[in-house]
Amino acid sequence: MSRSSVIAPFQTERHDHSSCRRDALARAEDICLRKGLRLTELRRRVLELVWSGHEPVRAYDLLDQLRGERRGAAPPTVYRALDFLQEHGFVHKIESLNAYVGCAEPADRHGGQFLICRRCKAVAELDDPAIHDTVQRRAEASGFLVQGQVIEVTGLCPRCAADPAAPQPHAHEH
Amino acid sequence: MSRSSVIAPFQTERHDHSSCRRDALARAEDICLRKGLRLTELRRRVLELVWSGHEPVRAYDLLDQLRGERRGAAPPTVYRALDFLQEHGFVHKIESLNAYVGCAEPADRHGGQFLICRRCKAVAELDDPAIHDTVQRRAEASGFLVQGQVIEVTGLCPRCAADPAAPQPHAHEH
DNA sequence: GTCGGTGATGTTATGGTATAACCACAACAG
DNA sequence: CTGTTGTGGTTATACCATAACATCACCGAC
Known about the structure:
2 copies of one chain form a homodimer. Chain A is an alpha+beta fold.
């Protein structure tokens, strides 16, 4: 079993999250530069806010924060930024939560599988070929032409499973 | 490859949908009888409406229909019925559509995998052990304790993939 | 340089999804 | 008959997302 399929693991300790966020922004800057995409101030700021932690962030929470720093921020402000970020693989939408997480391995329209902790709300991202291919093969066996996969697993992350009384991590561990 | 994992296939022709619906209602009646669950008039009616076709149905569409036949129908009316039906496996929520489909093989809190046609909107349900087990194993390999799986595949059903110009089936093929 | 096109954002309004909180009443067990 | 539980009615509100149109910055053609 390869471990390489885990592209964004659960954090086992309170980690230096500012480096996660900084790395994600640097990768986005780099990719946009190479592809000629416009990572505007707004889009950059929304990506930064999504990376405030490893928990999925809701659109209206982003909006609340934007309102504090940008006059005229409204729902389309944040949804348009999220659309751009999703389209180019910088963030994923977690369908079962209606919330958004940053992607640690951005690529256009790539899928991925998400492990969502019910207790601490953290999300880990896998990009496991075994899962992807099994789903693909079984769908094709039914004559279905696959265009996209939504795979979201809920349960308990290693820390919450091991110690249900452990303190809850909160975002913003700067 | 077993075909038994396809528990609700795509319909290849305009089929006698009234028998699908009748069977689903009969199964629900039977299960509720055996388990001592109360399939009230409201719940039965909502289940019947969900089974109006093989396309996922939105909660407010159900509500619109209920309003025509029941004074005082309101969002909680339909959501409470859907909660009951989901809890006991009679319907599934399609997270990526915020819509609901009937289940052909009801069982408490069972998962299942869904193939969702982007063109005709029909949904087929699989209950494929290979998919389930692969996801389960890979999640466990990350130390994750799995409690639930959301697996939704979008694309084109066999008919729409074969003939993109074919007429769109509509629900209510009574 | 200015004209016009394109893409990003501002702005207002609305539509769509879901739940909180409280009330009335029926079914049922003791 | 009485308390408890479950079901649904009712009102209100919160949350999620997009339509439609206006404005502005940027940039290339001429």
